[in-house]
Specification:
With 358 residues, the chain is an alpha+beta fold. It contains 10 helices and 11 strands.
């Protein structure tokens, strides 16, 4: 008996509207629900949001620091220092910058005497390395260290990058830089004995290369900062070998050079393969090539497979088995995953081997 409970689907919809539109009040949400054909009172909306611990509209506004960082991640840089003591009890300072959007780390320098002039010069070197990409950044987050002088700020403001100072004694406001310090210490510096500045610079360069090119990141979907899967053709996985970083301190993985792996457009071009479109003419229902689809696919996988030493294509539309010389049944998709198609399909792009490079 009594008043029936609110439909759980409506409750979820109210909470979703409140979270996605933090400036909407009870009546604004009620009007949106009424527009969707759901009649709910303002008191019910208030009760639902109170149970979900979502306060009134002005206090639900997305003006928090974490919301700012999430919104401007791709245009934000974060910089900081961390120190390491050598075996001779000499303290070395590391200055680095993190691209928040990609988690790419720039280790700018290592020095035992890091004063304001040295830090300013490292900032100039960073902008020189970024070149045209420097224009994509709008903010630089830093703490209130005395080594960050006014000349340091002028280097970035001259390139239209606004310098944001975090509050005093608030390292969590520069969380991205602090997180990299913890990662570098845990995986690298806390497990090594550093003998000097030159040794430390070599160690950091190798670790930064591993961090940027191979180490997976959860924020990036378990990809490395420099990974770009947009032009990768997946081939059957071959033999995996262990790759030593920092003399075996960190173990990575890589494929053997003579096994199957991923072929990029750049690698295909370097092998002397030309990408040619295969079109079906209006007068003829067959492709505009003199060979059959089976032979086209055969040439396709043979050109790439023999040049890279990676065997036959196992998922081509009509691949000819190199051992049995039989043509299996057509599959759903070519080995290229649609990036390079079979000549037997209209509008696809195929691979045509050339005489040079093979």
């Amino acid at each position: 008996m009594g008043r029936p409970a609110t439909d759980p689907a409506i409750v979820a919809l109210i909470q979703k509207l409140a979270r996605e539109n933090p400036r909407w009040g009870y009546e604004r949400i009620r009007g949106e629900l009424q527009h969707l054909g759901r009649r709910v009172s303002g008191a019910t909306i208030r009760r639902v949001l109170k149970r979900a611990r979502l306060g009134p509209a002005p206090r639900r506004a997305d003006d928090r620091w974490r919301d700012f960082l999430r919104t401007h991640a791709t245009s934000t840089l974060a910089c900081d220092f961390f120190t390491v003591d050598t075996v001779t009890l000499r303290r070395l300072y590391v200055f680095f910058v993190v691209e928040v959007g990609t988690r790419f780390v720039h280790v700018l320098g290592v020095s035992a005497h890091s004063d304001g002039a040295w830090v300013t010069q490292q900032a100039r070197n960073l902008l020189a390395d970024l070149k045209d990409r420097a224009g994509t950044f709008q903010f630089l987050i830093r703490d209130r260290d005395t080594k960050f002088t006014s000349s340091f700020d002028e280097v970035f403001t001259g390139d239209n990058i606004q310098v944001l100072k975090i509050p005093p004694r608030a390292p969590r406001a520069n969380a991205f830089a602090e997180r990299w310090v913890r990662t570098a210490r845990t995986e690298c510096t806390d497990r090594l004995l550093i003998f000097g500045e030159r040794h430390f610079r070599t160690v950091l360069d190798e670790y930064a290369d591993h961090y940027n090119r191979h180490r997976p990141h959860r924020f990036l979907g378990l990809r490395a900062p420099t990974d770009d899967d947009s032009d990768v053709i997946p081939l059957p996985t071959g033999q995996i070998e262990r790759r030593h970083v920092l003399g075996g301190l960190i173990n990575g993985t890589s494929e053997l050079a003579d096994q199957r792996g991923a072929v990029t457009n750049t690698q295909v071009s370097a092998l002397g393969l030309v990408l040619t479109p295969f079109r079906r003419s209006a007068a003829s229902p067959t492709p505009s090539t003199s060979t059959t689809p089976a032979r086209d696919c055969n040439a396709c996988w043979r050109a790439v497979g023999e040049a890279l030493g990676r065997g036959r294509c196992e998922r081509s539309v009509r691949a000819v088995d190199s051992r049995t010389r039989r043509t299996p049944a057509p599959a759903q998709q070519c080995w290229s995953g649609g990036g390079f198609g079979c000549s037997g399909e209209v509008g696809r792009v195929g691979l045509e081997p050339t005489t040079h490079g093979l």
